[in-house]
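=== RUN LOG ===
request id: a7f3
mode: sequence -> structure
chains: 1
length: 126
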Amino acid sequence: MRNVLLVFLGGGLGSVARYLTVLGITRWLPQSQFPWGVFIANLLGSFILGFLCVWPMMKTQNTAVWLLLTTGFLGGYTTFSTLTANTWELFENGHATTALINAAASLLLGITAAALGFACGRWWHA
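=== RESULT ===
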C-alpha cells in the first residue's frame, strides 16, 4: 500500500508540474499552433528519467524514491496521450506538416533526451 501511495503522490505532483509547464510556455508563446508545452515537458521528462536510470541506488537501494520520482512524478509529468491527441488535432485542423513534425520530433528528440540523460548520469556518477 505504501508504494501505491508514493506513486499517487508523485503522479499528482508531476501532473501539476506538467500543467504549470504547459501554462508557462503557452503564455510565453501564445500565438504558436505547435504544442510546445507538452513537447518540452516530454523531452525534459525523458532526460530526467534517463539520468535517474543510471543511479544504482535508485533501483536497488531505494525503491520508495524510485517509485515516487519515476513511476509517480515523471509518469504524471510526461504524457503520451496528450502528445497523440495534440498531433491528431493538428491533422484535423489542416496542419499536417506540423503534426508530422510534432510526432517525429517528439519520438526522435525524446530518445535523444533519454540518451543524454543516461550519458550525463553516468558522467555524474563516474
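=== NOTES ===
The two ends are 35 Å apart (CA to CA).
Residues 2-124 form one domain.
=== END ===
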